[in-house]
Amino acid sequence: MSVTESSARARDTLARNHRTGFSRAAQRHYDFTCPSPDSYPFQWAWDSSFHAIALTHVDTRRARDELRSLLSAVTPTGFLPHMVLWQDDLRPRATEDFRIDLWEGWRSVTIAPPVVARAVERVYRATGDDLWLRRVLPPTLAFFGWLGEHRTSPGTGLLEIYQPDESGLDSSPKYDGALGIESAAEDAVHAAWHGAMRSLITAYSAPTRTPETPLRDRRLFVWNDVLVNTVYADGLACLARLVRTTGSNGRTADRLAAQSEAIGAALMRHCWDETSGAFHDLDLVAGKRNEILTASSLLPVLLDSVPESAARRVIEQHLLNEREFWRPYPVPSVAATEPSYDPTFRTGAIFRGSSWINLNWYLYWGLRRRGYRAEADTLAARSCALVAASDTTRECYGPEDAVGHGARSFGWSSLVLDLAAATVTATAPATATAATATALEEG
Ligand code: GLC
Fold this sequence. Notes:
Bound molecules: alpha-D-glucopyranose
Strand content: 5-15%
Distance between the termini: 31 Å
Shape: globular
Radius of gyration: 20 Å
Order of helices and strands: HEEEHHEHEEHHHHEHHEEEEHHHEEHH
Strand order of the largest sheet: 7-10-11
CATH class: Mainly Alpha
């Protein structure tokens, strides 16, 4: 029942949030799905990547156009902005609303987790459109090259971010210490976070700022984020497979696969905590590991380069632990045992406890990859129940009570379409979609 209802909500959102037109500032046509008509009207990079995956179940033409629009924003240097502000009429209020610096007027200067490679692979597998792949693969490869060149920490070999929202997990309590807001009272967290972000962005802001402006040596916020690096390593593995598919250059594919493995190995070396059995971010300014247990601590179970023994500890000691993450409506973005856990959105700040469908989606595939089929299906079913519980898709949901919070008609919650399709195929292995699902599990 909740599968049918959640799928209806998802389809409705994808229809409502569709945006097309011509941007005078960018001098090109756009065709994308905004995260939320009221709250987030522009194109956001990781949101769009999730939208494209959901759209493979609805309209593969739109799925292809979504990524083509996004990747048309890649700069000649290979940079893909976290936000593309296509609409000329809406742009003026955006810098205020979204605390951003713009590059050439219509692109943000910051990054988002590079989900785009996984999305390109999923859309290609759904369509088999070689011509499309030949158009979108070069800018995707260019962006991954840019990340490696401009964002690799010399000491750890991991990607680094220079402000919390580059991980997409904006107000996660794991950043409180680095932002100097760890002692803010619950009702003051939201304002304190905005204040700290404003100071950071003002400090970085300069008329000469470009996406390549070096920020590491400013030592304001330099961070190896586990989620960002897991998504990056996953993306490199997707690109290696795609390059092999095109048959173009075996050496490039080998290099990408080796880079993916190296990121997995660096996560094990620098972020894996043998005592807690989980992965933790590195705050490179403070020179220490962040101890707060969040959903990103679980994400590396996705990666083949993470050994089975570590993945099983993460899953059994944390993800499936009812005191921490396996709550009535998993997966909370912060473990329920953390003092900062905010399951009812009392702080009004995101990623402080609510469950998010995009994180559930990654963890669903992680569980399947590691052979936890029944638990993966439970996670998919509860995700569908969450989405069905509100009258429209919501930005995030209460892990204890399924109450929806944040933006309405929210795009990436439509990933329930992918979860529902994958779960159905789990019980009907003879279908073509089942073959796709098995291929995904295998890599
Ligand atoms: C918020 C989220 C970010 C997301 C954006 C649009 O800023 O933190 O991850 O991309 O909203 O949904």
